[in-house]
Design brief:
single chain, alpha/beta, 8-stranded mixed sheet, two-stranded antiparallel ribbon, 9 helices, 12 strands, elongated, HTH lysR-type domain-containing protein, transcription, WH_DNA-bd_sf
Length: 304
């Protein structure tokens, strides 16, 4: 049973006439008929009712067509996969994208790459504090996207570029706690915080809280979920909670005797290696465009 004969069979079924099927296949009608006959001989049963004027499927032919169509679709996908691998495209690409820095323009880059490289399995992960940095430096993630601090360069030979910025603030369920209070008064309320990474520079001192009553989680989205359930307050990306803050479901909590808002750049980063595949180069080139836009915005802001 040849793939070409299966393709001829499915084309005949789908075309309004044998002539149009032959034209679509770029073959003569006798050649198409020969393909059908050869397929029937290999199968041991008839695919079409011969006594009728038009090519009408037998019951066996109808069921066989359903399965043959699936096989041909898989064959086309397999051919595409082989073509992409032959072109050097990566079979899989791992990205660690921290929710605290989610932005629409970054999501757009990810979505476009997913469409452009259908044969590449895109794996996107997130986790505890500085998880992206951890995954990249260990060689698990090909690309990291997250908040960036200069000391990160000490963790490995990294290429890095800024593509945006994130503002962090204290957030709680509206009405759960006063919208303004002192730092000492925070001790009355439980805190939701990210689990620490394994880096030496990371510690509990980086968490913004004044209470031993703390729940540690390994995902910013989980923290947001618990904020919405009124389980505490958290230092979290304000853009991540933008919709809930604007609707009034969540509130930003201000501390009048201590700094309560912080900003950090969002960086894309990867290990510095001599060769990157087409998917890696595509991501870096597109994120470089975000870098150029961001640098222009920063330059414009500084000159005002």
């Amino acid at each position: 049973m040849k793939i070409s004969d299966l393709a001829a069979f499915c084309t005949v079924v789908e075309a309004p006439s044998l002539t149009e099927a032959a034209n679509k296949l770029h073959k003569t009608q006798p050649a198409v008929s020969q393909s059908i006959k050869r397929l029937e001989q290999s199968l041991g049963f008839a695919l079409f009712e011969r006594e009728k004027y038009r090519n009408v499927l037998t019951e066996q032919g109808r069921r066989f067509y359903f399965e043959a169509e699936k096989l041909l679709n898989h064959h086309r996908d397999l051919s595409l996969l082989a073509t992409e691998f032959a072109a050097g495209n990566e079979p899989s690409f791992n990205i660690c994208y921290e929710p605290i820095v989610y932005q629409n323009q970054i999501d757009q880059v990810l979505g476009n790459a997913f469409i452009k490289f259908p044969a590449t399995e895109m794996n996107i992960s997130s986790g505890k504090r500085f998880f992206a940095l951890e995954q990249v430096t260990q060689g698990i993630a090909n690309l990291g996207i997250g908040p960036w601090f200069d000391l990160f360069h000490s963790t490995g030979d990294l290429e890095s570029m800024p593509i945006g910025h994130v503002k962090l603030g204290l957030v709680s369920l509206t009405g759960y706690m006063p919208p303004e209070l002192s730092f000492s008064e925070l001790a009355q309320y439980p805190s939701l915080a990210m689990k620490e990474s394994k880096f030496k520079f990371d510690s509990e001192r980086l968490a913004y809280r004044n209470s031993n009553n703390v729940m540690k989680l390994d995902d910013a989205l989980a923290i947001k979920r618990y904020l919405l359930q009124g389980m505490g307050y958290a230092l979290i990306g304000l853009d991540l909670c933008r919709e809930e803050l604007e609707s009034g479901v969540l509130q930003q909590v201000r501390v009048f005797d201590r700094k309560d808002e912080f900003e950090a750049e969002i960086h894309a980063y990867r290990l510095h290696i001599s060769h990157h595949g087409p998917v890696a180069r595509y991501f870096w080139d597109k994120l470089k465009e975000l870098n150029i836009q961001y640098e222009k915005q920063q330059s414009s802001t500084r000159t005002r």
